[in-house]
Every structure is written in C-alpha cells, then in structure tokens.
C-alpha cells in the first residue's frame, strides 16, 4: 500500500515539475511510431498464416513456413545479398574514406566537390537508377558507345541482361549512389580531430602514410564504426535500384532478399506471378532476422576490437 502511494506521489511530482510539455511534444513521435511501425508489424504477423493476394485471405496454417524451406529462389537471393553487400562494402568504404581525407582540407573547390559527390544521395534511388539503366543500355547506351569508340570492345555488351555482368553493374550503381553520404559522415569525423595532433606528427617527422595509419584511423575509429554499421545494414536492405535496373534478372541472378520480397508482396511489371502477401510476410520476418544477426555479430566484433585496443 505504501509502495502504491509512493509511486503515485512520484508520478504527481513528475507532472508538477513541468513534464506536460515534454509529453505533448512526444505525442506526434509516439503516434507515428504506432502508425508506421507497430501497426504494420502486427498486420504482418497476422498474414503469415494466410494465403493472401490482396483481396481474399485463406488460412493455411504453417504452410508458408514449410514453403520457405524449399524455396530455392529465396535462398539463392540470400546468397546474392551477401555477394552484393560484400562487393558494395569492399569498394564503398575505402572510396568514401579516401575521398573524405582528400576533401576535408579547406582547399579551393573542395566544398564544390563535396556537394557534387553528395548529390546522388539527395536524388531518389529510382531516378538515378533509371539514368544508369539508359547508360547500361545494350544498343543505344552511353557506356557501350564510348567503349566502342575508343576501341575497347567490338560488339555491344548486354550489361544488365547477362549473368556475368549484371551483378557488377548493380554494384557500380550502388557504390556511386551511396559513397557520398558516408563521405560526409567521415568528413565530420575528421573535422573533430585536433589540428595540433597533426602538427606534432609533422614535427616528429611522420610522413603522410604514417600519419594516416597512426593518427587519422585510430582517432576516426568511433565515427568509422558507426559508418560501417550503417553501410552494412543499408547494403543488406538494398533493393530499389535492383528493381529498376534488372528486376532481379537475368534468371534471378540479381535477386536479393528484399527485391524478391517486394515481388511477392507488390509484384512488378516484369513478374507474372500473382501476389503472395502472406508468403512475403514470412520472408520479411526471416530476412529481418538475418539482417539482425549480421548487425549483432558486427557489434560484438567491434566491441571485442575496442577491448583489445
């Protein structure tokens, strides 16, 4: 009884101290979280047990879960997701870091170059992917025309229609569209490194390479860890540009987890299969778990690296 009174008195005291404005400001955020996150998730959970095409829902129990075990296209898309993410990160992170180091110094034109490199981040991925779709076009594309003109190739290459080049093409577009965002984040981290540290290194006779590995990278560590985590989660969730460029083709070669899920739930102009929202809901949950496991593994590895250092 006394504990209830104490809780009530503390609650009353918190309101007396002016928490009403705080809660009023939180109401819009709480509302949008409920509407945009909680409700869609509960809706998703409901239809995992149904065969639902957007009009009629038929209860199928655990059939959707059984189906996923034998869905070769989905599990291949999981492997393609890892391939796509690894290739993207291998090129994206070093390019972002190198560009940030070169442009973080206040030189003539550095601000303009930062704006140019950051511009793809502002543009919708669907828009710039459509531009790249025409660049990669087989017979009237800019890339094939240029390579033929300089004599590198004799016949046009089907960049997006060949299983040998399609994944490389979508990775190029992903790196081009994403590295400017991480470049800006790294530049902000570099700006926080005191200049007197570099001056001391120069006095001690350290060259540029030694300064980079002994000072820049260690002091950029906290920002770099966040950038890597954002890059990993984004790479595993990418699908918009793939849908525009290849729609998962050719022969499902560029299907990643979420492009396949999008095709199941919403359909595409190139997909002839009916909508399978219930099955897509199951795939969404499994894919979210995969991304969650990868994120947790990265956080544990980065924590162990901190403990070692």
Automatic annotation (TrEMBL):
The keyword Transmembrane applies. The keyword Cytoplasm does not apply. Its main location: membrane. Gene3D superfamilies: MetI-like (1.10.3720.10). The chain crosses the membrane at residues 20-45, 84-103, 115-135, 166-191, 212-236, 277-299. CDD domains: TM_PBP2. Keywords: Cell membrane, Membrane, Transmembrane, Transmembrane helix, Transport. It is found in: Cell membrane. Residues 78-298 form the ABC transmembrane type-1 domain. It is a multi-pass membrane protein. Belongs to the binding-protein-dependent transport system permease family. This is Sugar ABC transporter permease. It comes from Lacrimispora defluvii.
């Amino acid at each position: 009884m006394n504990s209830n009174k104490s809780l009530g008195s503390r609650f009353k005291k918190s309101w007396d101290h002016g928490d009403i404005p705080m809660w009023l400001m939180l109401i819009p955020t709480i509302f949008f979280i409920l509407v945009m996150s909680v409700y869609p998730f509960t809706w998703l959970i409901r239809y995992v047990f149904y065969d639902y095409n957007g009009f009629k829902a038929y209860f199928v129990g655990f059939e959707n879960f059984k189906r996923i075990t034998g869905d070769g296209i989905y599990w291949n898309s999981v492997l393609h997701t890892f391939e796509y993410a690894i290739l993207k990160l291998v090129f994206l992170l070093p390019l972002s870091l190198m560009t940030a180091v070169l442009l973080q110094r206040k030189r003539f034109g550095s601000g303009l170059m930062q704006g140019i490199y950051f511009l793809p981040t502002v543009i919708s991925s669907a828009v710039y992917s459509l531009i790249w779709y025409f660049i990669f076009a087989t017979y009237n594309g800019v890339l094939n025309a240029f390579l033929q003109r300089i004599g590198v190739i004799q016949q046009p290459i089907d960049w997006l229609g060949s299983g040998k080049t399609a994944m490389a093409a979508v990775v190029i577009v992903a790196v081009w569209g994403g590295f400017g965002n991480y470049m800006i984040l790294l530049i902000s981290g570099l700006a926080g490194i005191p200049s007197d540290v570099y001056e001391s290194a120069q006095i001690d006779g350290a060259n540029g390479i030694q300064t980079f590995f002994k000072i820049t990278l260690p002091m950029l560590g906290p920002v770099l860890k966040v950038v890597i985590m954002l890059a990993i989660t984004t790479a595993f969730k990418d699908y918009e540009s793939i849908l525009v460029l290849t729609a998962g083709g050719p022969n499902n070669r560029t299907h990643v987890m979420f492009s396949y899920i999008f095709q199941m739930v919403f359909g595409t102009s190139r997909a002839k299969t009916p909508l399978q929202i219930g099955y897509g809901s199951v795939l969404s949950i499994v894919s979210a778990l995969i991304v969650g496991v990868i994120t947790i593994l990265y956080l544990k590895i980065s924590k162990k690296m901190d403990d070692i250092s």
